[in-house]
Amino acid sequence: MLLVLLSLLVLLASSALAFVLRKDPARAQDAGAYGAVAASLTGLLPAGRVLLTGMPETLTLPWAVPLGSLSFTLDPLAAFFLAPLFILTGLAAVYGVDYLKAYEGKKPLGLAWAAFNILTASMVVVFTAANAVLFMLGWELMAAAAFLLVLFEHEREQSRRAAYLYLAAGGAGALLLLAAFGLLGRSAASLDFALFSVPAGGGASAVFLLCLAGFGLKAGFIPLHVWVPEADPAAPGYVAAVMSGVMMKTGIYGLIRVLGFLSPWQEWWGWAMLLAGAASCVLGGLFALAQHDLRRVLAYSSIENIGIILMALGLGTVAAVNGATAMSALAFAGALLHVLNHALFKGLLFMGAGAVLRGAGTSELDALGGLGKRMPRTLPLFLLASAAACALPPLNGFTGEFLIYLAAFGGAAAPAALAGIVTALALAVAGALAAAAFTRAAGTAFLGEPRTGRAAGAQEAGPLMIFSMRALALLCLLAGLAGPLLLLPVGTAVAAAFGLAPALAAMEGAAAPLVYVSAAGLLLISLAALVFAGRALALKGKQPAAAGTWDCGYAAPTARMQYGAASFSQPLTDFFQPILRKIGQYPVITEYFPGKASFSTEAQAVFYNSFYMPAAARLRDLAYRFSWIQHGRLQIYILYIVVTLLLLLLWKL
Amino acid sequence: MNTFAELIIVFIILIDLALAVTGSLSSCIKLVALQGVVAGILPLLAMHGSPHFRAVAFAAVIIALKGAVFPWLMMRARDRSGARKDVEPLISYPASILLCLGAFIASSWLGSRLPLPETGVAWIVPASLATIFTGFLLITTRTKAITQVLGYLVIENGIYIFGLALFVEQPMMVELAILLDVFVAVFVMGIAIFHISREFDHIDTAELSELSDWRRGEDGR
Amino acid sequence: MEIVKPLVQLLAALLLAPLLPGVINRVKAFFAGRRGQPLLQLYYDLAKLLRKTPVYSRTTTWVFKAGPAIGLAALAAALLVMPFAGRPSALSFDGDFVYLIYLLGLARFCAVLAALDTGSAFEGMGASREMQFAVFSEPGFFLGLAALAAVTGQRSLGGMFGVLTGDSWRVAAPVLALLTASFFIALLAENSRVPADDPNTHLELTMIHEAMILDHSGPDLAYILYGAALKLWLFGSLIASMVLPSHSGAWARDAAMFLLVMLGVAAAVGVTESVMARLRLTKVPYMLITAFAFSALALIFQMGR
Q1: How is chain C split into domains, by residue range?
Q2: Which region among A348-357, A512-521, C138-147, C245-254 has the lowest average model confidence (pLDDT)?
Q3: C54 vs A contacts (CB less than 8 Å)
Q4: pTM of the full predicted structure?
């Protein structure tokens, strides 16, 4: 535990140092990045130790805040979330050094590093806090730091809007959480997690709903996701990797924690999570398919994956309530494993998108193309991450989903079996949609011919960026092949969150098939090697000829004739138009010799435009009705205060 | 369990699905006729022991009516009306099929809740409810008058199967009354369609609202 | 001996897979009143293509060359999971059918990326359609396997087909019939057969799978063709195991019967192709949704039993 505290101190110190050195960008970068890496290495040690031993470590320091106490607990659940946090922030910091070089002298890099390390530190606090006041402190600090980072390119209107949206969502979520913690700890002397008691009657359900919404606003599942597709793409690449890979997971972490407090559970809680998760993963995949910006595709894919995790939590809850212990534990284990895996591959994907943005100056899919030749080192990494995001074996995206599938098919009786079928179906649909979205994104950006001059002149990412991405890619592959080894930490984390018995059941249920999955993964790799060897043998002594692409005899193909992002997904997006509501302009050709025609299609933020905007407009109209209260005169406001005080006095008398 | 009867039940549900999705009027008519015939065979199979003569005769009448007379009438109405030969649904194919599947899930849930006597054939209640729902689907989401009649016929098939579930031994009483109703209804509709199409050159029900007063008043003409 | 059997089965599948397209072609030729290609045509083609020197487009990168190879590896790995004549395969574990589906996804992923690597409009078109149909066909196929798992109470393919016997058909005929129909539609769609796609058309605007591989040549094309044959074998053996669930206990006899049924499945595909016209492209999703409906119905039946 002391080591975690040490890494926290290192983060804060390097953050302060980076801020002090802000006049000297190069040194500020060093201060921030070295601090982040050092903190990561320090923090990984205790996290790993706790995961392996399963023994929680606690630490309480004196703190004079009412209801609060400076108490930290590093139990296996916290450690399980800390591990991806430290892995990702450490690598992101290395990546960030190269990424930010272009901004030296143009942007306050010291401030950016200070905010980045504060973000990491605040997440460490969130994961280890054992007191609600401390937790909320970390929670709000995290929101503030991420807000600053989203505003990094504040000259763009889009970034400002995204940051504002993010802040609003975070504020609303925090309010709900305060209410939930108040309900949980209303009879205790302090808001220590250990002293929480389950409210009687409908109180438990109220707490659950408050937490689902409050944490959901951070986790970003549908329909609470509106900030995700705006804020994640607006942040710099390495920050987006951390935000999408870890920060959104703080919501999942909080939800698991609170579920731990709230036993016994109600069955409908599980169904609520399951259905929200299912909607989130299917719609997230669908929306990802319709986006025209690489980073927005990734953001929606994050929503999809958060949906998968939430759905697994819901499945586990339904199963647990119905007494299917093994099934529920498998589902929880799958959810946790996917937390880790998603952090790895989504971090890599966002870093790849950052490299594209850095190299080509844009991440608009239809302005890219042919980057594979200009960025040959980024290409395999991005493709690997895409395959992992589509949950393709032998990569790591598959193992977590596989556990969830195993859980889904483990139901014997009606409610649990039904929940399992819904889960499996949603996973299958989401998987197919993700495959379409990622082949589209990777194919349009990296393959074929460049569509614009910017894409043609793209630069390869810097060596530090490549290093970070390679490290993550390696981890993706290893985590995919070492699924059984990861079961131990996952098991201890599940045990810490939900009790020992289900965790043991999960280990038993999952161990054998996962060993087979790993073996099959190795087999697949060796088969691929065999096939490649066969190919090399067949090509031995031959000189393959080079020619233009065979376009069915068309003699003068241009890059613009390629299938673009919009055309690739058009059959599917047209089919789902009632849900997607793209705004499009299709040319109608009436003459025999038509002139120039243009075609445009735009994916709109459906929930934002169709639900939140009208709701906000309603609210504003309602607020206008009360505008007569506001006169702008000081005297009247003082009168209000006096009247309120008087009323309160009367009420208390 | 009576596997053959179960297969027939599945077949009836598949016909429901097919009805929800076919585009052409004539195949719609044929499907409804086929469903009627299959439903007519069902009581012979569901019965325990050897069938009575009365039951066989009754089944024969039903099969003849639903398999030959009704389709012939409908085909005639279709040919005479001179309308386009497709169904013109108001909702898309996937929506129809998903609605139908949802209806089947709902009716299997409902079937497990209804306090009904054991029939010996699984799924007979859900299948009948799903068939009734498909009839409603045809009536509500198709524009043509002839599909409305088809919808009624499908509902009648559903009720027939439902009656089978209720009175395995004595379905005739209920059935005869219903059949008579529908028979009259088909005749009336046939005549109506024939005349409407003569008046208006088409049998789109949307156009029937032209006949009402308020619509004209709304247009201001 | 028991250890050798799965390997022999695997070897048989690897060797005999290219026979199936030959059978289909012969059946189609019979219906068209032609003599048709030799039964072993695909073998000749493969041998020839493997000897040829490929031509690579200047647009392409290593992705174009790696695509067919990884795709073939994925399909071969999928073959390891698939039971043969109702007997466990070399690799059989709980949830292996999930693994199988994701391996097919991997093969598709590679094929699509390789197609997009050429920058050709036609191949992009094919890739787009391939992904579109996958979105519709995958959930149905998945649900079908889930229903089969529910029928048999097993969670591995080997277990499912091991438990499935003639008696299962007597007890659960409706469910199994629906599933077989659903799998057959999946076979037609996934293997780009009529009515989803036409393997013979070279009219670029209408084809799907063929459009994706326009640029491949030499050993790469051989890999793709062989991979397609393996995929056909995969789906064929799924259906064969469904309709012929008898286990006499004698391995050789079971295997012979199984191979016979496989030929029957290929013939059935050929007949389907001969008597049906290709569906309009916008109607193909409808067919796949129908397969989904079959699977869903089967599952509902099974759940309510």
Answers
A1: 8-303
A2: C245-254
A3: 539, 542, 544-545
A4: 0.91
A435 with C108: Cβ contact below 8 A: yes
| pLDDT of B217 | 44
- The CA–CA distances, whole Å, from C184 to B206, C19, C95, C191 equal 40, 19, 22, 10
DSSP three-state, residue B140: helix
Q: Which H or E run contains A45?
A: helix A25-53
Contact A232, A240 (CB under 8 A): yes
Report whether A271 contacts A318 (CB < 8 A): yes
Burial (0-12, 13-18, 19+ Cβ within 10 Å), A199: middle
Residue A118 backbone dihedrals phi, psi, to 5 degrees? -65, -40
Q: How far apart are CA B59 and CA B39, in angstroms?
A: 9
Cβ-nearest to C69 among A436, A532, A559: A532
Contacts of C112 in chain A (CB under 8 A): 439, 443
CA-based nearest distance C125→chain B, Å:
23
CB contact under 8 A, A432 and C138: yes
Distance between CA atoms of residues A400 and A409, nearest Å: 15
> Smallest Cα–Cα separation from A305: which of A342, A337, A348, A352?
A342
- Contact, A135 vs A257, CB < 8 A? no
pLDDT digits 0-9 by tens, A132-190 = 999 999 999 999 999 999 999 888 898 999 999 999 999 999 999 999 999 998 888 88
For A424-448, b/e burial (b = at least 16 CB within 10 A) is bbbbbbbbbbbbbbbbbbbbbbbbb
B196 pLDDT above the threshold of 60: no
Which residue positions in chain C have pLDDT lower than 50? none
User: B54 CB contacts (<8 Å, ≥6 apart)?
Assistant: B172
Compute the distance between CA of residue C230 and CA of residue C217 in angstroms, rounded to an integer: 19
- For residue A64, give the nearest of A122, A8, A133 by alpha carbon: A133
ipTM of the complex: 0.95
- The amino acid occupying position A512 is A
Can you tell me the distance from the alpha carbon of C195 to that of C201, in angstroms, rounded to the nearest whole number?
Answer: 12
Query: Residue A385: which of A425, A416, A348 has the closest Cα?
Result: A348
Domain parsing of chain B, residue ranges: 3-219
Q: How far is C150 from chain A (nearest CA, A)?
A: 8
Query: Which chains pack against A, by 3+ Cβ pairs within 8 A?
Result: C
Under DSSP, is residue C62 helix (H, G, I), strand (E, B) or coil?
Answer: helix
User: Are the Cβ atoms of C174 and B93 closer than 8 angstroms?
Assistant: no
Radius of gyration of chain B, Cα coordinates, nearest whole angstrom:
18
B interface mutation test: which of C180, C290, C305 has the most B CBs within 10 A?
C290
Q: Is C254 on the interface with A (CB under 8 A)?
A: no
Q: Do C285 and B94 touch (CB under 8 A)?
A: yes
How distant is the Cα of B213 from the closest Cα of chain C, in angstroms?
41
Query: Does A338 or B24 have the greater pLDDT score?
Result: A338
Query: Does the distance separating the beta carbons of B21 and C305 come in below 8 Å?
Result: no
